[in-house]
Design a protein that fits this description.
By secondary structure, the protein is mainly alpha-helical. It has two domains: 100 residues, Winged helix-like DNA-binding domain superfamily/Winged helix DNA-binding domain (Arc Repressor Mutant, subunit A), CATH 1.10.10; 50 residues, Dna Ligase, domain 1, CATH 3.30.1490.190. It is 44% helix and 10% strand. It contains seven helices and five strands; from the N terminus they run H-H-H-H-H-E-E-E-E-H-E-H. The strands form two sheets. It has a three-stranded mixed sheet with strand order 4-3-5, with no helix packed on it. A two-stranded antiparallel ribbon has the order 1-2. The longest helix is centred in the first third of the chain and has 14 residues. It is globular. The N terminus is likely disordered.
């Protein structure tokens, strides 16, 4: 029953308030009959409040002090579940660990520093409009998009 519901990917609400995001993720998991274990809740809290797009390893390091018996596999399972139900966006980087965005679980652009690997969400409202224009011009039904800009962040520029 769970797997059938998981396939019904819905677009998550476009909230960025960490408490609202946490409540949204918990509600969706409960609706799909998933347990909210203390470890799972810890992962949800990290993803809801993070604006730094943590990797599974980063999440694991943050969960470990409070839940030392939690495994990295538990983190991956939770993140993958959240990805399947549309509550987290995975940023796939072939040369490094994937990063996760639970604060803005919808398509949006990213600025990525090629030196320190920081990932930032720029405030750009025109991306949705661009997707609509592309769909209209080409006849494509746009179902998802990803736009990443690579550069050197101000902090790394100052260190050069």
């Amino acid at each position: 029953m769970k797997s059938k519901k998981l396939r019904q990917k819905e677009t998550a609400p476009r909230h960025c308030d960490p408490q609202v995001r946490l409540e949204t993720m918990v509600k969706k998991l409960k609706e799909l009959n998933f347990r909210i274990t203390p470890q799972r809740l810890a992962v949800l809290k990290i993803l809801a409040k993070s604006d730094g797009h943590p990797s599974a390893e980063d999440i694991f390091k943050q969960v470990q002090p409070d839940f030392p018996t939690t495994s990295l596999a538990t983190i991956y399972k939770t993140v993958n579940l959240l990805k399947q139900i549309g509550e987290v966006v995975e940023l796939d980087f072939s040369e490094q660990s994937n990063r996760y965005d639970g604060n803005k679980p919808y398509p949006h652009p990213h600025l990525i520093c090629i030196q320190c690997k920081a990932v930032v969400d720029p405030d750009v409202a025109t991306i949705t409009e661009l997707a609509k224009k592309l769909a209209k011009k080409t006849g494509y039904k746009i179902v998802n998009h990803r736009l990443d800009f690579f550069g050197i962040c101000p902090r790394c520029q100052g260190n050069s």
